[in-house]
Amino acid sequence: xxxxxxxNQEDVRRAxxxxxxxxLERNRGAEELVIVGIxxxxxxxxxxxxxxxxxxxxxxxxxxxxxxGLYRDDLRDRGQSQTKLQPTDIxxxxxxxxxxxxxxVLYTGRTIRAAMDALIDFGRPKQIQLAILLDRGHRExxxxxxxxxxxxxxxFNERVKVRLMETDGADEVTLIFEDLNGEEQKSAEEQEx
Length: 193
Known about the structure:
Layout: E1 2-7, H1 9-27, E2 33-38, H2 41-57, E3 63-66, E4 98-106, H3 110-120, E5 127-135, E6 147-151, E7 158-163, H4 165-168, E8 172-177, H5 188-192
Parallel strand pairs: 2-3, 2-4, 4-5, 5-6
Antiparallel strand pairs: 1-8, 7-8
Helix pairs in contact: 1-2
């Protein structure tokens, strides 16, 4: 596999700081906010955004975790007849709150649709916003992010890999090139060079 780094540790840090500032600006502060991270990497990103909000605003914003495995509509299409569930932990009420869903990559939109369905089981938020580290395009549903760390148009034969210190020992985002048979392929930039 051939990988090309898209974001390094400093890029990730700056993107999350910018997202936190945008959340504060749009919501006129941190009152009535709840940050909800989607398992797995979205949880770690949510905690980092909440830490930024606390640093910038001086207010602790509650962080919750959400597993969307049971709400997915495409498990069979992804070759998964069973899904490994992770804990959902929403100890605070979300009724009437402004919820910021956090995930690492926005692709088809199916994970976010599943997350919204799961959230509604916990109450009716005043508003649901979406914060994403990387938007790679190729939406199958009419879903867009309110806050984006970086936009990266990709081809269907490219995969995005997000690595975070908490799960992978490093902060970076890479683009992996594959042909349709799973073999490595050069990017368009490299083919033109």
